[in-house]
Amino acid sequence: MPWSLCLVLCSLLAGTQADPGVLLRLGMDIMNHEVQSAMEESHILEKMAAEASNPQPGAKAIKGLSNMKVKDVLEPVITLNFVPGVGIFQCVSTGMTITGKSFTGGNMEINVVLNITATDRLLQDEGTGTPMFRSEGCEVILVSVKTNLPNNKAINKFVDSTLRKVLPGLMCPAIDAVLVYVNKKWINLTDPMPMGQMGTVKYALASPPNTTASHVQVDFSPVVQLQGGQRIQLATNGTAPEFPEGPAKDSQLLLSATFLTAELALLQKSLEVKLKDKRGTVGKLPQTTETLAGFIPQVAKTYHKPKPLLIKVKINKPPKVTMKAGKSLMHLHGSLEMFAARRHGKHAKSLFRLETHIGLEIHYSVQENRLQMATSLDRFIEPVPGIFFNWRFPLLSETELSGFVTDYLQKAYIPLVNDALHIGIPLPDLLAINYNLAELDIVEDALVLGLKME
Ligand SMILES: *[C@@H]1O[C@H](CO)[C@@H](O)[C@H](O)[C@H]1NC(C)=O
Ligand SMILES: *[C@@H]1O[C@H](CO)[C@@H](O)[C@H](O)[C@H]1NC(C)=O
Ligand SMILES: *[C@@H]1O[C@H](CO)[C@@H](O)[C@H](O)[C@H]1NC(C)=O
Ligand SMILES: *[C@@H]1O[C@H](CO)[C@@H](O)[C@H](O)[C@H]1NC(C)=O
């Protein structure tokens, strides 16, 4: 491609790259745990040993050795190191006993201790879009070799060169086989996960995963979609979120306020209260017009007999999540309208409507690997003068109206909000991470989960 064309196209491509809204940092503790458990799940060295003992059709017989068997494979010790920009250097230390008939006709036993080393390059699978490891440059290093054969230079040399020839073919497939198990643990990562009936979230990678000296970092551009298919854009502004300063080796998941805001957009409709609300008493107040008559003279004049009150809550724009160190709020902008119920068949009569901005404090926790939010009333932002609609009544006491509304919000509306939030936000499904153990920390514009191994 001509350079000038690349300048145009390449910058266009770069421009379409989405800002990450969720970051994941995997330290050595998690990587060790994953590789170790993949090794155990795969029973790989035992399988290799068993295979080696079976006569392989077409396999090259080892000259001078017959009836070869591999037994007593030692529990492998795995050592991993990050290779910045590349992936992980893996060393598997193990040992085994090889038995057989030697060329002299006697029973031969070789105890060998060895290291298998390889570089596991961290890539992004083109098909599934998930991270994957691929091993490169596998080598077998003999640490010690002991035989029951006469200690003689020629024999030692023979054993040594035979092992060097045979072992890589035997052991290196084990590295690849273990990586198959590790790679499987990412496989569901980019599947859309449901948020109840409202929509889905998919943790798509923003860019190929990156390895640094202390961790693997995966940046996500989550795709949040309403049930019908409409995508909710993350309101990122070009500044990528960053992990707070701290020990870089720790494993952490960062959920930006922007991401949480997009998730809550899925719930906007379930935060509304309609007049004919099926959710019990949320829209039907225990009080009557008599209560309002105490501070709205016009209600006292119009309603001599108490009438039941009904309430309607509209949310005009998607809820917004904001975060400052230690504190997170959910902002609900909308209106609250009060009605007096009328006899069967007649529409309820509107008494007044308030424009509202409700600030709820969010309390985060993780249950069953989903982020849970519960809210409590932080402040009821007083209606600004001049934005009351349908306001036909003089008011005796604004404090009493405010108290009345606050009471409603606390007793009926917030439980409804918490009910809607109870769905929880699914977290990235990878490496069988147990988020339930995470320590949560609210920082500037983000929630950080400190990931712990069991
Ligand atoms: C084999 O691996 C172990 C563990 O990583 C290491 O301590 C040892 O030095 C290695 N030996 C050789 C000969 O490479
Ligand atoms: C991936 O999803 C499938 C289907 O839900 C499930 O059977 C499988 O256990 C999951 N794999 C992992 C590694 O979580
Ligand atoms: C990978 O991480 C290193 C160290 O943090 C950084 O310098 C480099 O720019 C990153 N590479 C990519 C492609 O993000
Ligand atoms: C982008 O948004 C972040 C988080 O909301 C904010 O801290 C930052 O100041 C914004 N940057 C710009 C350039 O608007």
Automatic annotation (TrEMBL):
Q: Show which residues constitute the signal peptide.
A: 1-18
- UniProt entry keywords in alphabetical sequence: Secreted, Signal
Q: Quick one: where is this thing mainly located?
A: secreted
Domain Lipid-binding serum glycoprotein C-terminal positions: 245-451
Q: Which domain of life is it from?
A: Eukaryota
Its localization reads:
Secreted
**CDD domains in UniProt:** BPI1
**Is Signal found in the keyword set?**
yes
Report the family membership. Belongs to the BPI/LBP/Plunc superfamily. BPI/LBP family.
What's the protein here called? BPI fold-containing family B member 6
Q: Which organism is it from?
A: Apodemus speciosus
